[in-house]
Amino acid sequence: MQENFSLQPYNTFGVEAKAKYFTEVNTIDELKEALTFAEKQSLQLLFLGGGSNILLTKNFEGLAIKLNLKGISEESINDNEVWVTAKAGENWHEFVMFCLQKNYGGLENLSLIPGNVGTSPMQNIGAYGTEIKDIFVSCKVLDLENLELKTFNLEQCRFGYRDSIFKQEGKGRYVILEVTFKLTQKNHHIKTEYGAIKSELENLGIKNPTIQDVSKAVINIRQSKLPNPKEIGNAGSFFKNPTIPLVQFEALKQQFENIQGYPNGDRVKVPAGWLIEQCGWKGKQIGNVASHKLQSLVIINATGNATGKEIFDFSTEIINSVKEKFGIELEREVNII
User: Fold this and answer.
1) Is-catalytic flag, 193?
2) Is 162 a catalytic residue?
3) Taking the model in full, what pTM does it have?
4) Is the torsion defined by CA of 311, 316, 321, 323 positive or negative?
5) Which position among 162, 267, 277, 321 bears the catalytic label?
6) Pairing label, strands 2-6, 18-25
């Protein structure tokens, strides 16, 4: 247990903020021990995974717990299906690479997403036509109210777009300890119709892609337009893509004929990056903070010296300008502490 501990290395924005107390746990027993300490001291809790989805706007006057639970296990269900379970502290991309080396299909479109396995169900991470819910079996959690272990199945997680029970009524109540995914061993479902995957595969000269080829294409695309958090502080996509009523979208199309949208029933998903770019934010810098020059959806700690408050205020200005121009209110995807 360490006091007055810097969390700068534990968040991908590289923001300086201190935790009153900090500890790392490698087992469930160590986790329970830390929770008992927090309860005796009446401390708030902050659980840290890969630190890729948080913005620290101030010092944390509680106990920050870094979850280092590690381990991967496999269970072959039949000739084609395999269930792979990963502990919460496993790095997400390394886990995806582990599965691809074994020729397990289903995760390839989610390559190079920052963070750890434990946070993946919280916001139902997704990219290039795949979401966690598509390959999710269950997750084991610790209930902070009674320190009991529970298992949530697909239905109980109530996954939505960047959403789950863990961001709604279960927020702050459960700690995800491990996640089980159902993957394919033979009959892989290759998804190449989303984003620029098809054209990237053509660039690579690949006509009949394997799951490994799809992963390589996704990695190339992400590296070409998203900054590496190890080189420049960021948390990936800062905002959710808003979903608006079809009627509102049609009205906006009258005014902005190039507006992009993906219809789903009587609603339309509008790319937040496009909206932000139209408001002149792409590559724009204010003080220590900027919108990335290649992807306006990503806010960066441009100088390395930005405070969490500066980043938060920058995001507020983006929200205000998009609302003023399009009448659409952007929602932050990043968890604000």
Assistant:
1) no
2) yes
3) 0.86
4) positive
5) 162
6) antiparallel
